[in-house]
Design goal:
Order of helices and strands: HHHHHHH
Number of helices: 7
Oligomer: single chain
Structural class: mainly alpha
Number of strands: 0
Largest sheet: none
Distance between the termini: 42 Å
Shape: flat
């Protein structure tokens, strides 16, 4: 052995993983661990929304409890529900961001791009 680097050894042990675009949301997030966990689940699309629970056989009724109009999914629950879209608009304005809410994938891409 001519030279030994701990970094190289650690990389061999850990293996090579593809870097995800949303890693800064987790690394630079000063939020409560519970919030970070929910963000992680949402990014992975693993939140237990009614559409997902129906797929697992736990619920039959998948109508959103907040608006009673559409099927509850991540996209609907956070952004397209009439109740939560108003809430998000107020929260964005409170932070000085003047724009309309978008779909989950678009919101995620915007957050990754503008994340500080």
């Amino acid at each position: 052995m001519e030279s030994f680097l701990v970094k190289n050894f650690y990389t061999k042990l850990r293996g090579n993983f593809e870097r995800v675009t949303w890693r800064k949301l987790m690394q630079t997030n000063l939020g409560v661990p519970k919030w970070k966990f929910i963000v992680y689940l949402a990014v992975q699309r693993k939140l237990m929304t009614k559409d997902r629970l129906r797929g697992l056989g736990y619920v039959e009724e998948v109508t959103c409890e907040l608006c009673n109009k559409e099927e509850e999914s991540i996209d609907h629950l956070f952004f397209s529900c009439s109740y939560t879209s108003q809430l998000w608009t107020v929260l964005l304005q409170w932070q000085g961001i003047c724009r309309k809410t978008m779909r989950w994938s678009d919101e995620l891409n915007w957050t990754i791009k503008c994340c500080k």
